[in-house]
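The methods section describes the discrete structure representation at length, but only in general terms. An entry of this sort, consisting of the sequence and the corresponding backbone structure tokens, reads as follows.
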Amino acid sequence: MRYTGHLDLQRTWERTFRRAGLPLAYTQGYNPRPRLQLSPALPLGCTSECELIDIWLETPLAPNEILTRLKDSAPPGISLSDAQPVPANDPALQNQVTSVEYRASLPDRLTEADLHASVEQLLQADSIQRSRRGKSYDLRPLVESLVLMSGGSAGRESLEMTLASREGATGRPEEVLLELGLDPAECLIQRTRLLRPPPQESQAN
């Protein structure tokens, strides 16, 4: 599933709901679409342990029943951990997430000293100009934190990244790795957390 694009993943979820026999709600109009929203698109080739999906049902069902039926119908590579009701007027998931955390398992041929030097150089830079799809942009403000960790999977070094995930300002883990002189194809990248600001408490008048 790590090589399934965002639109294909959305279609996969639609088929999963049909297999589960869940009464998924649809939009109105000439081209009705299922009412579901995925969290910000996962970069192609990355795995994740924290994805979210919002769904609207025509008929209310207990969260446990929804979860059980989806688990029985989900394709290999997708596992579900929880289901819970949310307010119907909540903002779209893409608009709630402000930052994303990734963990990249790095090639074991690299020395710890070289990795630390590359990370420190990136963090100290005022600006990092990169080009993606023919457009130039500054990577540095999109990198909120970088932490090099020892003793990861199979004893390999790993890089913990917190990257911005806002409209028009999204950091991509493969771009960070390229800037560090690493080949993203040699790294195992996993999304570990979606960060959302805490809900604001209502103030009494």
Remarks:
- The radius of gyration is 20 Å.
- Strands lie at 36-38, 47-48, 53-55, 99-105, 129-132, 135-138, 143-149, 158-166, 169-170, 188-195.
- The chain has two domains: 6-91, 97-195.
